[in-house]
Amino acid sequence: MLDDVHAHSGAVYLLAPDEPVLEMAVKAGLPRAFTAPWERVGLSAPLPVAQALRELRLIWVNGEEQMAARFPRIAVVLLYPFALAALPVATPGTAYGAIYVTWPGSRPPELAEWERDHLTAACERLAWRLERADAGNLPLGPDPGRLTTRRTALAGGTAGSAEAARMAARLPHGLCALDLHGSISYMNPAAAEMLGVPAGALIGSPLWAAVPWLNDPMYEDRYRAALISGQVTSFVALRPPGDWLSFRLYPGSDGLSVRIARARPLAGTGRPAGMPARGTARLVTISHLLNLATALTETVGVQDVVQLVADQIAPAVGCKAMVILGSHGGRLHVLGHRGYPDTYVIERWHGVPLSEQIPGTHVLTTGVPAFFDSWQQLERLYPKRQGTQDGMASWAFLPLIASGRPVGTCVLAYAEPHPFPADERAVLTSLCGLIAQALERALLYDAKQQLAQGLQAALLPHSLPSLPGVEAAARYLPATLGMEIGGDFYDLVPTGVRAAAVLGDVQGHNVTAAGLMGQIRTAVRAYTTVGQPPAAVMRSTNRLLIDLGVELFASCVYLRLDPGPGRVVMARAGHPPPLLRRPDGQVRVLDLAGGPLLGIEEEASYPTTEFALPPGSVLALYTDGLIESPGVDIEDALAELGELLALYGDEPLEALADQLVRDTATAVERPDDVALLLLRAVRPV
């Protein structure tokens, strides 16, 4: 595939068997270190391969500006000019994964039709082959990956290679060759002399690892920029005590050629003489930090944080399992975990008093990390520790400190003995600082969500009453932005042989709107119970809203149902018109007479209209959140709702309700709350 479209790198992702995660199975063209932050990608992540599979379409990003605007997680780590295409790998019945390929930034900004055809056809072929392998129970294991797809033969064969080496040795400029990992595969004597390191000590080692004064992420970044962008890059570095060298990198499909020359001193370039080089920082670590920091800003709830740590941090540091612990009421609480097949190992931590002398509580209360290279070391330091062995060999217990206080503990467990050198401990501690800030926000968000959902549930009916001659089903969906609480409401009130149905929408979707909604719903129920007719119920509710002085308006539709003769009396206050599906499947919009919104005019009147509701008919009452969506004409949205009602109206009422809220224009992103009440007339038994 890469050869056909002249791309220089790519990877195949497969869906994990039991979780919504894409795992990198095959990669080509770039070292593993470049793609390490994205070896496991959540299916909901804002990344090209995940979006391609979610939407089952090709995703095209033509450069760094588009990447920064659409996929900031990638742009913040790979700030280089390159183009990317991501495609789903799926048959009509099964999704298997996704593929991405990249090109140098010098390519045309648009994807040509022949490139699109080649990519699409290749993904279709792979999907069918995966389907056949799946049907034959053939295992789909990861491939170690290959770094290059094309090799360029040197003219002259072996003799030509030797002559090329002799020619390079005679040149006064330093020349060296790097493979795709950045390791030196050839160096002429001039380059070894300029670097001050014998050539024998350089071959096979990364340039920045073998030369101490080049051990800086800034220099390694230039190598990454050359490989990913496919463009010549350069930098100037100071060789202590005072020699400046110029490095120019020429990338190819199988590595880079580097030209080294002496340069004039440049003011403000490099580090001052005598300043120690950064020997421990590796760019892959910085990449993970940047990628994680960007991703953590997108997490919302606690489980989002747990999922992100499991998908990105655990693979990066090589641990087998992880647990995130919090505290409540003086006891440990397990907030989330991954990688432990035996859940009992995790459950024994839940509810442990913080006074208990175990690593999880000690780290949480003191804020000091703890690292254990072996089980024996853990047992020696904590002989009274509860529980049994968890099957792991090494552990890192890391405090999650945010705003100066501990909010939890992150436990990383390794299947093999794992030493923790000082540089790795520093990196893990830095990572947990980022995790702690996200966890603090997530805990607060989850607490607010639980409060909002509890309040909303208390204000709406817990269930709808059973009525002779009428079936009912209802749905409430909060807006997708902000707190999950709002002013939409519905109710069904039995009054002897009759019943009253009401659905309304208080302006806003916040706590104030929800509180007012509760008052209106209670008032409507009270006016109905004392026997007021529909017009009087609306007038009384309107005056109540004005008397409350809250400066919020409400729309409402009120129905008095008389199932015996199959008649309905409707009063409406500025509310979207209900839909009536007749027994023959035809749908009618009941855009009948009504009055103004509740809470505007003290003396407003609300005329009523009577219509027939024969057995088999379905009435759909809804709030505007079901049909209003940015960029969608309201008339078109109402027509779409009518078509859905006509198409699925014969299904059971609960299934019909699910279908209507799932297939409308606002199903994915809801700027407003949605309430839906369905009523079906049936013949009394």
Question: Care to describe what's here?
Answer:
The chain is of the alpha+beta class and 685 residues long. The chain has 21 helices and 26 strands. The longest helix has 38 residues, at 422-459. The two termini are 66 Å apart. The model is unreliable at 147-159 and 266-284 (pLDDT under 50).
Give a short overview:
By secondary structure, the chain is of the alpha+beta class. The protein is built from 21 helices and 26 strands.
Strand content: 25-35%
| Morphology | elongated
Number of helices: 21
Mean pLDDT, to the nearest integer, reads 82
Radius of gyration: 33 Å
Structural class: alpha+beta
Distance between the termini: 66 Å
- The proportion of residues forming helix, as a percent range, comes to 25-40%
**How can the largest sheet be summarized?**
6 strands, antiparallel
Spans where pLDDT lies below 50 across 5 or more residues: 147-159, 266-284
Topology, number of strands:
26
Strand arrangement across the biggest beta sheet: 3-2-1-6-5-4
Task: Please give the structural blueprint.
Blueprint: H1 2-5, E1 9-15, E2 21-28, H2 32-35, E3 40-42, H3 48-55, E4 59-61, H4 64-70, H5 72-75, E5 82-90, E6 95-104, H6 113-135, H7 157-170, E7 174-178, E8 184-187, H8 189-195, H9 199-202, H10 207-210, H11 217-229, E9 233-239, E10 243-252, E11 255-263, H12 283-296, H13 302-317, E12 321-328, E13 331-338, H14 344-347, H15 359-366, E14 370-372, H16 375-381, E15 394-402, E16 405-414, H17 422-459, E17 470-477, E18 488-495, E19 498-506, H18 511-529, H19 534-548, E20 554-562, E21 567-573, E22 579-581, E23 587-589, E24 608-612, E25 618-622, H20 634-648, H21 653-663, E26 674-681
Antiparallel strand pairs: 1-2, 1-6, 2-3, 4-5, 5-6, 7-8, 7-11, 9-10, 10-11, 12-13, 12-16, 14-15, 15-16, 17-26, 18-19, 19-20, 20-21, 21-24, 22-23, 22-25, 25-26
